[in-house]
Amino acid sequence: MSPLEETVAAISPADPAVLADARAHQERLTKPRGALGVLEDVAVRLAGAAGRSPAPMPSPAALAIFAGDHGVHAQGVTPWPQEVTTQMVGNFLAGGAVANAFAAQVGASVTVVDVGVAADLDDAPGLLRRKVAYGTADLASGPAMTTAQAVAALHVGIETARALIEDGARCLITGDMGIANTTASAALICAFTGTSPEEATGRGTGIDDETLQRKIDVVRRALAANGLEPTSHEPAGAAAGLRVLAAVGGLEHAAIAGFILGGAAARVPVILDGVIAGSAALAAAALAPAVVDHCVAGHRSAEPGHRAALDHLGLRPLVDLELRLGEGTGGLLAHPLVCSAVRVMHDVATFDAAGVTEKEI
Ligand SMILES: O=C(O)c1ccc[n+]([C@@H]2O[C@H](COP(=O)([O-])O)[C@@H](O)[C@H]2O)c1
Ligand SMILES: Cc1cc2nc[nH]c2cc1C
């Protein structure tokens, strides 16, 4: 079996008996039932995913930022030059990006993975050189990647997850860097959810109305060129999912999909960042539907397609602060919330143990 097949085969859905135990325990804790709102669902879901209640503390956390470039950049879908991808990789490695600041704040490690930037990078501490290609081909005129490239990038993500977990990570956080990657994200969301290009496509790093119209048209052409016009039907099965990922995804999307699968296979929770992670998670879910049980949506990005992706996955975002940065920043912000949700299950007394009287009616 390939690492991808092995990983997919190792992914189990949440354990229903553990979910029930966790829910019952949650109800005995010294607080009104439901008073912790969405955090109660997080704690119960993570217990089910881990196969034990309470779930292990999701700490320490490891952020992996997967970087890649995009042939569709040539279509004028972003105001930023392509070399910013490589330059930001340097910034992450020097500790100067927002992701570094947020990671320091929440105590997460940062690993940067070159899965497909257009330039050659020198060895540097914290950099994994795993280049599959020097960027993708232009998805507006045909497949962005070959199937072999998509699989190789999936393997990069799986191996990165494995290595971080072996080093002690108990929570994975997805990060991305790739100028023009919100175009590929929108195309993936259209293909996997049936959302229209008008609805799924947003302003990314910040574009004017004329550029937005061009970007929508590029997404429409990408779907047509790859035989993926939006329908209300999700492409069925792993083979179709892989085909969609290769056709309109990016190398970092494929690696993030592998990273999510790798975490789920080890029963380590994965906090998803923004629209790039959301669209990559759609591909991961096409390859292994149970993967969703191991994911927490860290936040909802301002990019409109992200809502469609999360709705399709059935995930509720924890934070909604109109962020649209990527890098893993929204996932990092959510990490203390996820830890707090799980810690309640470990630390909070039950009504019985604390001698607190339960409500009467
Ligand atoms: O995470 C998000 O939801 C998000 C939304 C908008 C932009 N980004 C980041 O901005 C870059 C892509 O934006 P663009 O406009 O070049 O497609 C890429 O590096 C992403 O990490 C990320
Ligand atoms: C400066 C800059 C930083 C980023 N981080 C993630 N995407 C980005 C895009 C730009 C342009």
Return the CATH architecture of the largest domain.
Answer: 3-Layer(aba) Sandwich
Helicity, as a percent range? 40-55%
For the largest sheet, list the strands in their spatial order: 3-2-1-4-5-6
Number of domains: 2
Mean pLDDT: 97
Which overall shape is indicated by the principal axes computed on the Cα atoms? globular
Q: Output the structural class.
A: alpha/beta
CATH topology of the largest domain: Rossmann fold
The first-level CATH class of the largest domain is given as: Alpha Beta
User: What are the secondary-structure elements, in order, as H or E?
Assistant: HHHEHHEEHEHHHHHEHEHHH
What Rg is obtained from the alpha carbons, in whole angstroms? 20 Å
What bound compounds does this protein have? nicotinate mononucleotide, 5,6-dimethylbenzimidazole
Query: Span from first to last CA?
Result: 57 Å
Taken as a percent bin, the fraction of beta residues is: 5-15%
Full CATH superfamily name of the largest domain: Nicotinate-nucleotide-dimethylbenzimidazole phosphoribosyltransferase (CobT), large domain
The largest pleated sheet is described as:
6 strands, parallel
GO molecular function, one term: nicotinate-nucleotide-dimethylbenzimidazole phosphoribosyltransferase activity
Family: Belongs to the CobT family.
Pathway: Nucleoside biosynthesis; alpha-ribazole biosynthesis; alpha-ribazole from 5,6-dimethylbenzimidazole: step 1/2
EC number: 2.4.2.21
